[in-house]
Amino acid sequence: MAAVNRAERRAATRRALLAEGRRGFAADGYHHVVLAEVARAAGVTKGAAYHHFDSKAGLFRAVVAEVQHELGERVAAEAERHGDPWEQLRAGCRAFLAAGSDPTVRRILLVDAPTVLGWDEWRALDEESSARHLAEALTALVEAGTLPDQPVEPLARLLSGAMNEAALWIARGGDPVSAEQALDRLLAGLRVPS
């Protein structure tokens, strides 16, 4: 019973640190967050924060992974609301663009993560979540003949890069409706003529 209570306390401590870290990183940005202050705000010791995450960068990685996973799930859920694979692609892409209006996604994923983690690590996290869903959708559309037969990986990277830029543009005050319209025109241009 004591082992269960310790495990529950460790899990609760980790959740509290993640939540407070996420709040701080989203509000203030990576460079203005101090791990000791995150620990204090979470109601734990600085030693507990270091035990769970080794460093501020370790906490940030965990927060990025959490936010990236949630975004991937949000994109997938929007896509799954549609039965048609083409509409799934459009809905998933639109959900990703809409995330640019979310201050947490904007600051943590689009602004700080590529700089703090480095491009390769940030890209790997992206590929595990929303980029993976994009590649799966494009593969299904190529197999169905909706898109021309082509290698999916470069197409997925091109679309992912374009959507990351558009989401960041939206986050900085760009018009979401204009971005969606441009996305629809871009996607329509990829489609095999009916």
UniProtKB/TrEMBL annotation:
Keyword entries, A-Z: DNA-binding, Transcription, Transcription regulation
PROSITE patterns from the UniProt entry: HTH_TETR_2
Pfam families linked to this entry: TetR_C_41, TetR_N
Presence of keyword Transmembrane: no
Domain of life: Bacteria
InterPro entries listed in its UniProt record: Homeodomain-like_sf, HTH-type_TetR-like_transc_reg, HTH_TetR, Rv0078-like_C, Tet_transcr_reg_TetR-rel_C_sf
Residue range(s) of DNA binding per entry: 34-53
Record's keyword annotation contains Transcription regulation: yes
Occurrences of domain HTH tetR-type (ranges): 11-71
Name of the protein: TetR/AcrR family transcriptional regulator
Record organism: Streptomyces omiyaensis
Lineage of the organism: Bacteria, Bacillati, Actinomycetota, Actinomycetes, Kitasatosporales
